[in-house]
Amino acid sequence: MELDERKSKILKAIIQNYQETGEPVGSRTISKYSDLSLSSATIRNEMSDLEEMGLIVQPHTSAGRVPTDLAYRMYVDQLMKEDREKENEKAELSVPDQKSDFLIKRMDRMELMLEQVARIVADKTNYAAMVSSPRINQTKLKFIQLSRVDEYKLLMVLVVEGNIIRNKIFDIHEDLRDQDILSLNLLLNSNLNGLTMDEINLGVITHLTEQAGVHKDIVNRVLEEVAKAIRPDHSVEVYTSGATNIFKYPELSDNETASEILDTFEEKKQLAKALSDGLKADGHQGIRVYIGDETPVDSMKDCSIVTATYELSDGLKGTIGIVGPKRMDYPKVMKTLETLMQQLNAIFPKVPELEKKEPDAEGDVNIVEPAEDEKE
Amino acid sequence: MELDERKSKILKAIIQNYQETGEPVGSRTISKYSDLSLSSATIRNEMSDLEEMGLIVQPHTSAGRVPTDLAYRMYVDQLMKEDREKENEKAELSVPDQKSDFLIKRMDRMELMLEQVARIVADKTNYAAMVSSPRINQTKLKFIQLSRVDEYKLLMVLVVEGNIIRNKIFDIHEDLRDQDILSLNLLLNSNLNGLTMDEINLGVITHLTEQAGVHKDIVNRVLEEVAKAIRPDHSVEVYTSGATNIFKYPELSDNETASEILDTFEEKKQLAKALSDGLKADGHQGIRVYIGDETPVDSMKDCSIVTATYELSDGLKGTIGIVGPKRMDYPKVMKTLETLMQQLNAIFPKVPELEKKEPDAEGDVNIVEPAEDEKE
DNA sequence: ATTAGCACTCGTTCTTTTTGAGTGCTAACA
DNA sequence: TGTTAGCACTCAAAAAGAACGAGTGCTAAT
Known about the structure:
- Chain A has helices at residues 5-21, 27-33, 40-52, 69-86, 110-125, 178-192, 202-212, 216-230, 255-266, 268-280, 330-347, and strands at residues 56-57, 66-67, 128-132, 141-150, 153-160, 164-171, 238-241, 287-291, 303-311, 317-325.
- Chain A is of the alpha+beta class.
- Chain A folds into three domains: 5-79, Winged helix-like DNA-binding domain superfamily/Winged helix DNA-binding domain (Arc Repressor Mutant, subunit A, Orthogonal Bundle), CATH 1.10.10.10; 103-135 and 235-347, 2-Layer Sandwich (Beta-Lactamase); 141-233, Heat-inducible transcription repressor hrca homolog, domain 3 (Enolase-like, domain 1).
- The first copy, chain A, is elongated.
- Chain A binds a DNA duplex through α3.
């Protein structure tokens, strides 16, 4: 059977109506709701066809129709598109940044900012939001330094490309003069700086340990940490917000389902997996839509997930995702994500290296500066 | 009216039965359940008295009785105590530590460890758990260092007592020779190390800025960060786990209530407030119980909260809390928290300063070392 | 003081009835 | 040939009613 113009319109009307009400939608409703003026009887005939095509089903005889996953897929891939040009109701969500910070107090850490982004998206859309911290793909070591903290403790500071900082405190049991520390620093910096994971090969390592002499175990421990710091797929944090929004959708808020979904949100590992999925293949403009069974997470078979990939200046890529009922407002969600991406890109311009900062009097914040102690 | 021996027993029986079943408990049940062999009629008379005393109520005529908040209060304060000596079913929960780390992979950060503690407690009790990171009361600055990262960026590393590390990257717009950095470091360390918040007074500050000469704005920015790092009541993280456990208790799992509670768990600020409450006045062994309306959080009027204060070696104090229905198993929960405290204390012994670490070959972990970049 | 007995209450559960939204089909119409 | 009015039919959900039974309070006997 053919999905002609009229059938499309009817299907779209059904989807949109169902999106709003959450109730199965009947022929009479469409007859009035849509602009094509047809009697309910005609609509019924068309609906019958649509059902045969597997695009809608009725929960029981004498109920209205509900779109199937297939219909949503079709909606997202085709039907929706046509409207999207017109629809220009400026999605005015404000990403917290340094300049217009009326929404946010201080955003001096990436972590806070991602949390805020999640919150804003969740508030704006009324769905649940999740954001994965960017993961680094191939990072250069930029700076390394050892310093003595007290008699038995050595502090190591690593800075990698993107100004991500990593600290580690070592206990030392051996004698170590300040002079030794100095030369170790020199040794490490001159040999390691600017190198990527791959470039630190056995040659470099043996050279280092040889040079280190008696302190070679310190060098080894340093190398271990370096490896951790620049390892490509080092684990990813996930920030979430608005998980309880699912209670706004009856089809998700029976205890069984809700509990499972919320569990997943608490146990962020699975979310991380779902989000990193989107990183691999960039669909249309980096936005991907998973409908029902397509979702990579078991507990969300009754949901849809929309993800988008963001990229910060240093090539740090992360994903932001929205979880809602299958009847979610796809156009709105996708629009939201799109403008969000644009804004993020505007804030973090893709200047290859050494982007010059405009010197603004006070507290000009380092955008990528996640490393701090765990407080505040 | 007098709460005699028998009434106590009956009340206790009611509470315990209700704790298990969640259903109003009737006279017949008690007549059989409790060891005092009395007919249901007698129990009924006593119950009538208990109701008059405000210790139990019936949801409606012809229903069993349910304990009031007052009854729980009495139970926690008195009734329960008697049994607690006998009850020695060793609460075997294993705090993740370095030695017995079968439960945990790597605990090289406080953050991870607190998360794990929350998880374990939640799993063990079947209630929701929350843990606040320790807050520092009066901290000394231990170490400070500036280093150049690249032409326009200066990295500052602070270490404060307890080996908490804080990083900050400054943009610099002025000329700064390596020699200048060295002397700045010298200047800062010799003047600030070992000082607490209070001791860094105007005298010290003016002396510093004077000495700094042209670089006095750098010093100012450093001081600003120092202030943040050692500020006494710097904000507190809260780790939670098992929030969805509330679905196990029907009285909490209608959508309205559940949604509110879960919201509170997502919005951790309120939890932080509730937890910090316990820090102030140490009740019996640091364990406090809030029943129903006593809870400091509005959305948890239908819950009870049990909190305990833990203290790590460096005088870092935090709170761990358990949220459950008012009919929670108080003895079990309190027991759990008690043994947990003991274990934490065992792992972090209260040696005043410079606790000697047993040198174990590899990766001897710094217990208090929260500061790292946001990954892993 | 305790208890057996009994009438009474009232939420829960099960069954029945009613309602109405929605369908499919047919026959008439343009 | 496509559209529509009309009508019988279905079935979930809502409303109404009946039966149940857990639990109570009271009284009278022990």
